[in-house]
Design brief:
about 350 residues; alpha/beta; five-stranded parallel sheet; about 10% strand
Length: about 350
């Protein structure tokens, strides 16, 4: 009788556990389906961790934050290279909004591991705010980028995360209930307090997210043709810090990958509106800070012959900028054309 009672209880537990598992599985699948067009950050991570377009054999890769993602157009690069050399080349933009030093390394190494292919060069912009701060890392990449096991081990090895936190990153990124927890909460209150506004936001996010997977743009996202006016830059309140250094070791390993695998890393200064030159207060602050971070990056790359720094004018007319930090389509085409010309010339600086 006791044995039968035990068997009955065990079977009941097993059935209950199976039902619970299936319900949770179905709930997670439903959440993943519903939230794909409701979370602006989700496809930033997924578009470089779970996107088959990424893992092709490209001759040239671009990497950086939103200023690369929305400022370097592979289509223009491929067209210009063909014009200069008479040969077809392939290129892809791996840059994504708010990318910082750890993911320059993690994304590049992932590409090399998966494809087994060595690009001719990886072309990068390295803004000073990529060397420090954790908000973007926490809000986007440690929430939505789906890591491979070796990447989880790597962030522990580099002391970016403690072991338990790295395991949380891995589990949370693969479980929709956990991945979208914050967004579900904010969306719930948004729909309650401003239903029409929340729905407009969801539609805009869905439309924008599809661009991440457009095979025709090769990872690039255009910001259109509108441009800033003189008064826009003096009004901006961007805060630039000069002491960031907590991710220096990641850039060192990013550069070391290039030396070990035998390709070049080409680093260029991203353009800034020449209106900065007219604003003495901003120029007084910006000039020394810009020089400070550039010095740090050069020190990290010192002794590595595979890292090349471009020397070119960084102050461009307002007609090239959609906002004080980002190029519009005209600016992107100008920058990309210049990068192609440098790659073709190899040793000569960009000519404006």
């Amino acid at each position: 009788m006791e044995n039968n009672s035990f068997t009955f209880n065990f079977r009941g537990f097993a059935v209950g556990a199976a039902v619970f598992f299936l319900v949770m599985l179905a709930a997670n699948q439903l959440i993943a389906h519903l939230m794909v067009d409701a979370d602006a950050n989700d496809n930033i991570g997924l578009s470089i961790s779970k996107n088959p377009l990424v893992y092709n054999n490209y001759d040239y890769l671009f990497i950086g934050d939103s200023r690369t993602h929305q400022g370097v157009d592979p289509r223009v690069f491929m067209r210009e290279m063909k014009s200069l050399t008479g040969h077809e080349v392939t290129a892809y933009n791996l840059g994504r909004p708010a990318m910082q030093a750890p993911f320059y390394y993690l994304v590049t190494k992932d590409y090399l591991n998966v494809t087994g292919y060595k690009p001719k060069a990886i072309i990068a912009n390295i803004s000073f705010y990529m060397l420090g701060g954790t908000k973007w890392l926490e809000d986007i990449y440690l929430g939505y980028y789906k890591p491979k096991p070796w990447q989880v081990v790597d962030v522990v090895k580099h002391r970016l995360l403690r072991p338990h936190r790295a395991l949380q990153w891995y589990v949370r990124s693969y479980v929709p209930m956990l991945r979208f927890r914050k967004r579900i909460k904010s969306l719930y209150w948004g729909l309650l307090t401003n239903f029409d506004g929340a729905m407009r936001g969801i539609r805009a996010i869905g439309k924008n997210n599809k661009k991440y997977y457009d095979p025709e743009t090769f990872g690039y996202m255009s910001r259109g043709f509108s441009h800033i006016e003189d008064e826009d830059v003096p009004k901006s309140n961007h805060v630039f810090g000069a002491g960031y250094s907590i991710y220096k070791h990641y850039f060192k390993d990013f550069f070391k990958l290039a030396r070990d695998k035998g390709y070049k890393v080409i680093i260029y200064d991203f353009p800034w509106p020449d209106i900065w030159l007219k604003n003495k207060e901003k120029q007084k602050r910006f000039g020394p800070i810009h020089a400070h971070w550039k010095k740090i990056i050069k020190e990290i790359a010192e002794g590595n012959p595979n890292v090349i720094f471009l020397d070119h004018d960084i102050y461009w007319p307002k007609e090239n900028f959609v906002d004080p930090l980002h190029l519009n389509q005209n600016g992107a085409e100008k920058l990309t054309t210049q990068l192609a010309r440098f790659v073709h010339q190899q040793t000569e600086p960009i000519q404006n």
